[in-house]
Amino acid sequence: MKPDALIVPARPSASILLVRDGRAGLEVLMMQRPLHMRFAPGALVFPGGAVDATDMRTSYWRPRIDSFRTSADLPNRIAAARELFEETGILLADGPVPQRRINHRPLGQALDQAGVQLAVSDMVFFAHWITPELLPRRFDTRFYLAPLHRNQRLVRNVAEADDLLWLSPAKVLEDWDRDEAPLMFPTRLNLIKLARAGSVSEALAMARRTPVVCTLPVLKRTAEGTVVRINPETGYGVVEATPRELRVESGTPAPKKA
């Protein structure tokens, strides 16, 4: 274990699980990371990213959110909604969004142009993951669950739009079992948790009544390879990452089958 002084601080970040009721049940919005990315190329992920300085400007966001919160996670909620807008073009609004497109504008300006507020009150704290202490690049990520309303639609053109996928959590997990869906460890476990609900209302109710236990995986390097384990108290029902998930994160090709 590194001395405490050498542990890299985890950068605050946020991710959002946007859900809707599909024809066959609950669906969640996911993206597929480009294959040229160094970290987790080709992986299915939820929209999200690091908290930036703008997300922490409380006075700026006060008139632009539907419910002012003094809680410490407000910047994370703003970051999750901003990343959703930047990566998917979906505006998490509290009311009807005009039909006109909103291109190449920061989230705050887009809200002003559309005449709506950010629906932070729709966002339910869902999960909390911190990157293992032994890694050189670390994030302290809060995951939020939010429902897609009729007034929340694509309002800007983004290059990643072709990669947006509304997927059944249970179906993604089935595909993962068949080695047909590349997932990182936190993504798979959050899909396991989400798949326990059959509809948006069930998912939101489950998230509101289930305490979030912070997940800080412990990474150990052994002669046989890297082992990543989590505390069983996190409630996922899984405590160890598979070699396949670790390969997805590192971008290491899967071994060829004999």
TrEMBL record:
It comes from Gimibacter soli. GO terms for molecular function: hydrolase activity, acting on acid anhydrides, in phosphorus-containing anhydrides; metal ion binding. PANTHER family: ACYL-COENZYME A DIPHOSPHATASE NUDT19, TESTOSTERONE-REGULATED PROTEIN RP2. Residues 9-190 form the Nudix hydrolase domain. Its cofactor is Mn(2+); Mg(2+). Signal peptide: none annotated. Transmembrane segments: none annotated. This is NUDIX domain-containing protein. SUPFAM superfamilies: Nudix (SSF55811). Keywords: Hydrolase, Magnesium, Manganese, Metal-binding.
